[in-house]
Write a structure and sequence with these properties.
Helices cover 14% and strands 64% of the residues. The protein has helices at 2-22, 50-56; strands at 35-47, 60-74, 77-93, 100-117, 121-138, 146-163, 168-178, 180-183, 186-189, 192-204.
C-alpha cells in the first residue's frame, strides 16, 4: 500500500514541476534587452540644514528629469547608468529681520545602479555623485544681494518601477544625499532625503 502511495506522490510532484517549468512568466518587457529611457519626475526634498528649514520649511517641492541606459548582465539582473537633473525653488523670510529671500538649488547627478527587472516591475538600487549649485537672493535692506556656492556630494537611491506597457513605466523612489558648501562667513548643509515619483518612456534596441 505504501509503495503505490509513494509512487503516486512522486508522479504528482514530477508532473507539478514539469508544469511549472512549462509555465511562462507574464512579462511586458522582452528578455535580455538593452533599453534607453527618459522621464520626468517630481517630489519633495527634506533638507538637513536647520537654518534653511526655519526660513523655507522642512519640505521643499522640486521637479526634474532623468535619462537611463540599462545594460542586461544576466536576466533579470542588469546595470543602470543614469544621468539626471533637479531644480528646486522656494521663497521665505529671514528669521531675524524678516526680509524676503529666495532659494534656488540646481542638481546634476550621475549614478551606477544595480537593477532587477522581472518584466512587470523593476527594483533599482545604487550610489551616485551630485554637482549642486546653491543660490540665495535677498531684498533690500539686507547687507548682501545674494549668496552663492557650489559643491560635489554623494547620493544613494532606491527606485521601484511598474511597467504599464513595453514603452511606458511609472516609478517611485527615495534618495539620500550628502553635501555642503562653504564660503567666508557661512556654511550650508545641502544634504537630505528626497522622495518622489515620475513617468518615463523607454526605447528598446
Amino acid at each position: 500500500m505504501k509503495k503505490p502511495l509513494c509512487l503516486t506522490v512522486c508522479l504528482l510532484l514530477a508532473a507539478g514541476l514539469a508544469q511549472g517549468q512549462r509555465r511562462e512568466r507574464i512579462r511586458i518587457l522582452p528578455d535580455e534587452e538593452k533599453y534607453f529611457s527618459v522621464g520626468l519626475q517630481g517630489g519633495a526634498f527634506f533638507g538637513q540644514d536647520v537654518d534653511l528649514q526655519e526660513i523655507y520649511g522642512k519640505s521643499l517641492p522640486f521637479f526634474g528629469a532623468e535619462a537611463t541606459l540599462r545594460l542586461p548582465v544576466s536576466e533579470p539582473h542588469g546595470l543602470d547608468l543614469a544621468v539626471g537633473g533637479r531644480l528646486l525653488k522656494a521663497d521665505g523670510k529671514t528669521t531675524y529681520t524678516g526680509e524676503a529671500t529666495r532659494l534656488r538649488l540646481t542638481n546634476l547627478s550621475v549614478a551606477i545602479r544595480y537593477s532587477y527587472d522581472s518584466g512587470r516591475f523593476a527594483i533599482v538600487l545604487g550610489p551616485g555623485m551630485d554637482y549642486i549649485k546653491y543660490q540665495e537672493t535677498f531684498t533690500q535692506p539686507f547687507p548682501v544681494p545674494s549668496i552663492t556656492g557650489n559643491t560635489v556630494g554623494f547620493n544613494i537611491q532606491g527606485t521601484v518601477y511598474f511597467h504599464l506597457t513595453a514603452g511606458l513605466s511609472i516609478k517611485g523612489y527615495g534618495k539620500y544625499s550628502g553635501a555642503s558648501t562653504e564660503s567666508p562667513g557661512f556654511r550650508v548643509n545641502l544634504g537630505g532625503a528626497e522622495w518622489g515619483g515620475g513617468v518615463l518612456y523607454r526605447f528598446h534596441f
